[in-house]
Amino acid sequence: MNFYIKTYGCQMNVNDSEKIRHILESRGGHHCQNESQADIIIINSCAVREKAQEKIFSYIGRISSDKKIIVAGCVAQSEKKAILSRSPAVDFILGTHQYSRIHSVIDLIANQNTKEVWAGFTKKWVELYPDSESRTSAVSGYISIMEGCNNFCSYCIVPFTRGREKYRPYEKILEEAAYLSDKGYKEIVLLGQNVNNWEDRINRKTFPQLLGILAEKTRVRWIRFITSYPGYFDEELIEVMSQYKNITRHIHFPAQSGSTRVLKKMNRSYRRKDYIQIVNRFKRKIPEMKFSSDFIVGFPGESRYDFQLTLSLIRHVEYESVFSFVYSPRNYTRSFLQPDNVPLEVKKDRLYELQKIQEEIQLKNNRKLIGQIVEVLITRKNPKRQGEVIGRTESHRVVNFRSGALAGEFRPVLIENVGPHSLRGVDIG
Q1: Cα separation, 299 vs 302, whole angstroms
Q2: CA 226 – CA 190 distance, rounded (Å)
Q3: Cα separation of 311 and 319, whole Å?
Q4: What pLDDT is recorded for position 340?
Q5: CB 3.0–4.6 Å: which of 22, 191, 226, 324 could bond 295 by disulfide?
Q6: Same domain assignment for residues 348 and 395
Q7: CATH code, 406
Q8: Residues 10 and 145 in one domain
Q9: Same domain, 144 and 112
Q10: How many domains in the chain?
Q11: What is the per-residue pLDDT for 1?
């Protein structure tokens, strides 16, 4: 059986695709590098925005008619049978909590033409992690530690696609981290929709305690975690991060808006001043700490003043990077019922303004690095420039430079030129 996996969306989707690949390869399946070689196409889908969802249906329409098609992931979970009505070429729907049954799905569609939907939620954590051969990277390893969300932000479909929060047992997280360390991974990334709300009640462990134990016991240079919810802030997290140098000085900290009024409408549990206080506490304790964030532009009822508050927050924090999007109504969410009353052109103009300001901030901060030596983890060869490699700094800045070093090596790089989105330097090691 030859299969190809097309992955859309977040790092958790990437990790789920790695698990699917691991299951199928352990049962004799062959993972293909492109869809033309495959008999079965597995689409691991993203539903967080309408545009992302529509890309999936467009891709389905381009698949050759002789392929078997499985739609998995968040769109599969939220749309279920509607996918079969809209795209009759699809053979099976597999929800977010059902990927561990992928081998049974393959057997079903190979032996009969029935079209089914498996999309039930389960409260139990399915203990499974991919081996190194099934992972997308041999440098950075993802470790899922929790899944789902209890917050019900008014714009967010995650509780309806990933279910309520469930937490992976403490011992199993340490086991996977040790495995990745033994396999030579240089970085591990802890994953969860609200990763800083993880807990293990049986072992009486909180997320800061887990992070500290991993930092002590795991032989990797960098430990990251995404995504952190500002409403779950814990002073102990700052203390732990300040103690261990192998916890990266970079945190993805989605604000979504700089306006307390809009945050309340979004059902976010913090205010603008709370968010700023947390950032300031991090910077006081760890001056080199850097932040990235997510922002939604044009949320229902967002005024020009609300938007200006978002811009002022961006200027205050000076994020390393920002993921910004026009508000997209999603079915099932509370905001879907509200009038989408910010005109599309206004949304687009605000998004452009926000991204322009963020680019200026990034360019200004990147220019400060010219003439400095930074530590870079090489992630891959540059596919467009022979003899060049691409790497990332501790704060996740992209660095391009010529080097004979291999992926997974740390190199000292003298920065010579910069743009708003990447750095260019010389390997001086």
Answers
A1: 5
A2: 6
A3: 12
A4: 93
A5: 324
A6: no
A7: 2.40.50.140
A8: no
A9: no
A10: 3
A11: 87
Cα 233 to Cα 128, 166, 188, 236, 277: the distances in Å are 29, 19, 22, 9, 11
Return the structure tokens found at 285.
């304790």
Question: Coil, helix or strand for 76?
Answer: helix
User: Do both 308 and 361 map to the same domain?
Assistant: yes
Cα-based torsion angle of the residue sequence 404, 406, 408, 409 in order, rounded to the nearest 10 degrees: -30
Beta-strand pair 410-418/373-381: antiparallel
The domain that holds 150 is classified in CATH as 3.80.30.20
Tokens 């508050």 belong to which residue? 309
The answer to whether residues 410 and 330 belong to one domain is no
Examine residue 227 and state whether it is found in any structural domain, yes or no: yes
Q: Which 8-state DSSP code applies to residue 162?
A: T
Identify any residues that bridge with 4 across adjacent strands, giving them in sequence order. 41
| DSSP-derived 3-state class of residue 190 | strand
Structure tokens at 414: 């003298």
Q: Domain boundary at 346, 367, 388, which?
A: 367
Question: Counting beta carbons within 10 angstroms of the beta carbon of residue 104, is it exposed (0 to 12), middle (13 to 18) or buried (19 or more)?
Answer: exposed
Whether 358 and 394 share a structural domain:
no
Q: Are 382 and 398 in contact (CB under 8 A)?
A: no
Q: List CB contacts of 261: < 8 A, sequence separation 6 or more.
A: 306
- The verdict on whether omega for the bond into residue 379 sits within 30 degrees of 0, i.e. cis, is no
Assigned domain for 308 exists: yes
Domain that holds residue 406: 373-427
Residues 377 and 363 reside in one and the same domain:
no
Count each helix (H run) and each strand (E run) in the chain, helices first: 13, 21
Domain end call among 322, 347, 367: 367
Residue 126 lies in a domain: no
- Cα atoms in the Cβ-side hemisphere of radius 13 Å centred on 140: 20
Residue 273 CB: number of other CB atoms within 10 A? Answer: 9
Q: What pLDDT shows up at residue 319?
A: 98
- Phi first, then psi: give them for residue 415, nearest 5 degrees: -80, 125
What residues are paired with 147 via a beta bridge?
166
Smallest Cα–Cα separation from 212: which of 197, 201, 223?
A: 223
Q: Cα–Cα distance between 54 and 310 in angstroms, integer?
A: 28
Same domain, yes or no: 206 and 100: no
CA distances from 126 to 54, 118, 149 (A): 29, 16, 17
Give the pLDDT means over successive 10-residue stretches in the chain (429 positions): 94 96 96 94 92 90 92 95 92 95 92 87 92 96 97 96 96 98 97 96 96 96 96 93 97 97 98 97 96 98 98 98 95 93 97 98 98 98 95 97 97 98 96
Cα 201 versus chain centre, distance? 26
